[in-house]
């Protein structure tokens, strides 16, 4: 009986110890976290956050943020699984710490080396962790995971630019264009300055059948990036698709009156004429652009295309002919015209090659012209160039 009583007392003591309540103590919670005792740290900080006095101390929430951030970012499943909502709790704890701190100086904690670490630095490091994790997911083409991590970084630093830009790029790659637009708009609102953000926004509006908005954003971008060569193309493209052709031309022609020696204006007027299939007018504007900037590859290749269009028309007409004697005779006559058109276009393509010897569009056009003109030596030269560039013709 005595032995049974002793055993009962031992068990009773064990139960008492097992049921001993966790007491609120933010310093103990912090020290447990600092020495890797994350489960213990979580238990203590949880009760500390509900304590009437400690819940009003901003350091309680700073430590809670650190503890839960560690749980969310831990690669150890035993730690990571301590709370499925660790990120949200960390984010909210840091926010609460700021609210309680008010306008006082930044909170800080002391690391194991004895050095003070400001809360803002801790937030920067945590946001950087999610940013890097998102970037690694993006490299693996896991765009949804990338976006999820970029959004965590955004929630920690809502005034940031990098996380919004990266999220916009990832959403765009995931073909979620409207989401990408939202990210990029926030990026610009926060002070972002990358022209690529405008490309994403313009593209999203266009794909959403809001080409008028695409034009509006393109015009905003033109003001910010006056030397950019692509933004005006997008504006003109969507003006043409909206059948606002005269608006596109009129705007350029009016601008040219004020700036007659502005290469970009003449180039885009040529581009507008080309898109409208007004090839003679396109030639004139492209030649004027080249008078201003003789080394412009863009203007040179546009001029070459204008001349090549004439040859392409003849070639298509020849291809449509049958095998009757009349068709054969007509093909023969057209072939002579075709050759003359190719000869007229050839110098402009060769000039384009001089300006950019590695452009495949130029090499392809030259290859076809040389083949049709029977210029074997030049055909071999282009084939050699293809090999040098690691391309197959």
Question: What does this protein look like?
Answer:
With 393 residues, the chain is mainly α. It has a domain at 18-114. Helices cover 75% and strands 2% of the residues. It has helices spanning 2-18, 26-34, 38-50, 58-73, 77-80, 86-101, 119-139, 143-156, 162-173, 177-189, 195-207, 211-224, 231-241, 245-258, 263-275, 279-292, 297-319, 325-355, 360-372, 376-388; strands at residues 108-110, 116-118. Strand 1 and strand 2 form a beta hairpin. The longest helix is centred in the last third of the chain and has 31 residues, at 325-355. The chain is elongated and about 105 Å long. The model is unreliable at 1-17 (pLDDT under 50).
Question: Which features characterize this protein?
Answer:
393 residues, mainly alpha, two-stranded antiparallel sheet, 20 helices, 2 strands, 75% helix, elongated
Question: How are the secondary structure elements laid out?
Answer:
Blueprint: H1 2-18, H2 26-34, H3 38-50, H4 58-73, H5 77-80, H6 86-101, E1 108-110, E2 116-118, H7 119-139, H8 143-156, H9 162-173, H10 177-189, H11 195-207, H12 211-224, H13 231-241, H14 245-258, H15 263-275, H16 279-292, H17 297-319, H18 325-355, H19 360-372, H20 376-388
Helix pairs in contact: 2-3, 2-4, 3-4, 4-6, 4-7, 7-8, 7-9, 8-9, 9-10, 10-11, 11-12, 12-13, 13-15, 14-15, 15-16, 15-17, 16-17, 17-18, 18-19, 19-20
